[in-house]
């Protein structure tokens, strides 16, 4: 069975620390038992961090324990709380030309720890969260900023909801190597809105959907021809034949192992993040300022 693949404990629990320091109680009772376990076992370098972590564990213990017997109504309410947590309490950085941003002076990076935690927990909720995520596809509130080769840009709550849903359906995204832009449509037809796709697939268990997606990805990688495929993005040159073939073989290994694990457990794989191949979440409190 797959282990709960959160971000490294140092990162995940640093997020818990910052959220606790802010006394932001929106996340109380909505995080997973695994998150609580990580928070209790993680050892920070300083006594101050340890105290904050201990307070977090004590505050969470009762509501998290109660989650084991939560009703469907309680679960949906908790998921809605998590989606609300995707909306940052920070003002949105101003977007300039060529991917440049002006970050407001009152932007508090610690608030982004709450957004980070909500993303990870919603990934762990799997298909139970899909209907609520779809409801927020048009939510234009600011969620977080990310860095890509084209510059720094903002993500809305609606876009983040779509990314969480897509990553759960195709859990290998962000894990396998990016060889070509054609990888983005290895499974779903991107011309079909994901909410319409879900109407046709909502009765299927998520682990079964993931295996189906992985089978399509394996078939794509087995037949991948560097000469016939575009680069991974328009401004980039193609990978060398050697790098392309090495990446193709590594991708097949990852995909086959992931498929075997999901099929054996009959449980969905929980993605590590919604970071893109070339786009990473920024302005987090534990990151060094640019």
Report mean pLDDT, rounded to a whole number: 82
Largest sheet: 3 strands, antiparallel
Give me the strand/helix succession: HHHHEEHHEEHHHHE
Distance between the termini: 39 Å
Helix percent reads: 40-55%
Radius of gyration from CA coordinates: 20 Å
Share in β-strands: 5-15%
Describe the strand arrangement of the main beta sheet, using strand numbers: 4-3-5
* Strand runs, count: 5
Structural class: mainly alpha
Large-scale geometry: globular
Low-confidence stretches: 1-10, 35-66
How many helices in DSSP terms? 10
Please indicate the count of domains. 2
Structure, explained:
With 290 residues, the chain is mostly helical. The chain folds into two domains: 1-168 and 278-290, no CATH class; 172-269, no CATH class. Helices cover 49% and strands 7% of the residues. The strands form two sheets. A three-stranded antiparallel β-sheet has the order 4-3-5. A two-stranded antiparallel ribbon has the order 1-2. Strand 1 and strand 2 form a beta hairpin. It is globular and about 50 Å long.
Features:
290 residues, mainly alpha, 5 strands, disordered N terminus
Helix and strand layout, with pairings?
Layout lengths: L8 H13 L11 H9 L5 H20 L5 H14 L8 E2 L5 E2 L8 H15 L4 H6 L6 E7 L2 E6 H13 L24 H8 L4 H18 L17 H25 L14 E3 L8
Antiparallel strand pairs: 1-2, 3-4, 3-5
Summarize the structure in short.
It contains ten helices and five strands; from the N terminus they run ααααββααββααααβ. With 290 residues, the chain is mainly alpha-helical. It starts with 8 loop residues before the first helix and ends in an 8-residue tail after the last strand.
